[in-house]
C-alpha cells in the first residue's frame, strides 16, 4: 500500500497545491497545508478502509486541513467556497478523469484528436468544426463520433469508470495503478 500511496501522492501533489491555493490564495501557506496533509495521509493510511477511495480520502483530508487553518486563524470561509460533499466528490472524479483524458486523446489519430479537442474541449459546434476542418457537416459529426468511440475503447483498456444510473461519474481509477497505459 505504501508504494501505491507514494505513486498517487506524487501524481496528486501539484493538484493538491492548486486546490489549496484556490482556497487560501497564498503559495507559501498552500505549501504548508499540503505538507500537513502529507504527514496525515502517511500517518493515518491504516485507517483507510477502502483503498479504491484513496484519492477521495486524500482530498477529504486536504479539505479538513483547509477548514482547520481558517478556524485556527478565525477567518470566515466565504459561503461560495463551501460545497456539498457530493458536489466535491463529483468534481474530484471529474478532475481525475480529466487527468486521464488528455493523454488518451493525444494517442488518437490526428484527425480524431483534432475533432475531439475542438468539439468537446474547446466547445465549438460541429457545424463550426466542419467549416474549420473544411469537411462536410455529416463528416464532422462522424469524425467526432468515431473519435469518441476510439477514446472510449482506449479508456476501457486502461481505466475502470463507474457511473450512476444517470451517467454521472462516481469512481474512476486505473485498472492497474502500477502500470501506466501507453
UniProtKB/TrEMBL annotation:
Domain RNA polymerase sigma-70 region intervals: 12-74
One Pfam family in the UniProt entry: Sigma70_r4_2
TM annotation in the entry: none
Keywords associated with the record: DNA-binding, Sigma factor, Transcription, Transcription regulation
One Gene Ontology term of the molecular function aspect: sigma factor activity
GO biological process: DNA-templated transcription initiation
Protein name: RNA polymerase sigma factor
Gene label: sigZ
